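Section 5.1 Outputs to date
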Amino acid sequence: MLDGLKNIGKIPELQRRILHSFLLLAVYRIGAHVPTPGIDTAALAAYFEQAKNSLLGFFDMFAGGALSNLSVFALGIMPYISASIILQLLTIAIPHLERLSKEGEAGRRKITQYTRYGTVLLSLIQGLGISVGLENMAGPTGVSIVMEPGWNFRLMTVITLTAGTAFIMWLGEQITEKGIGNGISLIIFAGIVCRGPAAIYQTFTLLAAGEMGIFFIIILVVMMIAVIGVIVFVESGQRRIPVQYAKRVVGRKMYGGQTTHLPLKVNTAGVIPPIFASSIIMFPATIANFIDHPWMKLISDALIPGKMVYESMYVVFIVFFCYFYTAVVFNPVDVSDNMKKYGGYVPGIRPGKKTAEYIDDVLSKLTFGGAIYVSAVCVLPSILISYFSVPFYFGGTALLIVVGVALDTAGQIETHLLTRQYEGFMKKGRIAKRR
């Protein structure tokens, strides 16, 4: 693989794509430090320092620190993800959207357009909720976070945050089209990774102050490496169903007669379930956190990472979306029909309906195991923070995204290299994800 990566410099198109991705991600990181007008940034930073292990701190991690200084990108990409979830759910319930999803590229473009409209609508709602909530917030010293409360501030904040989310959405689409990998995933990846140096600095500060022992840090590092290794191993895991193709005579030529396999991933849905689950919980929790009402305060306190209500809802949503998204991206009936059409069959299983049922049964068992694995990784940060006083988030959605996006991006680069048949990959083999 390393020999193949050396050939990146020999492909101008791949160089341009990588450079384009880095430049657009740099624009995103610069925008994450441009504050929204009318905010006392010092009071806001002090408030978030107290709430770093709460839901706001968790949300700020996905926004790449943009929420803690209320930058123009404070909403992050979560409204777009929430809109995507809603559209995918509506695709099942609304026949018009279902027809669009089956119309190929034209239908997907129309659904993408609806997703953009939904993103703007959700951004307007969240922006208004945040602006109203900020007016009721104050720093530890009692200094108001908003300098001049009122509708002028609210309208300015709503417009600024909505425009910021729309711009991030555009950046993600540009990275997907002209860069490397999925742009939305890379933006989330960049927001999470950029918090790494601060977490390392904080850890060494605690070590110097004697609040953390060197032995504990060594154990923590070993555990981190082990967890990352488990994630890479499971994400690369497959259940290969053998498929035999019968011999067919077409004209004077004979086709088929080969044995291959149908690869089913242990975690078919990838990082989508925890992202979707986080978005579903974050939306009402964020609104409740900024509304000064006893019932809203109760909801906000319950939906904090580490609390039983939050963790239970998180696991339930992860399991649901593991099955839901797997059903969306993989249809056993279509796979069975295509196999039957070309003379393929699973040894010992009757082609057609029986094959579809067999594939569905295997996929359901794999998805259950994958859902348990994803849930276990995602509740890891709460355990480390609550019981071991780890001063930063490790594991969970963030780690799954970082490892998953890194593997996917490496796979995208490898694909560009393999299409040009470079010897480095042909001789040394491919990375584990794409075996």
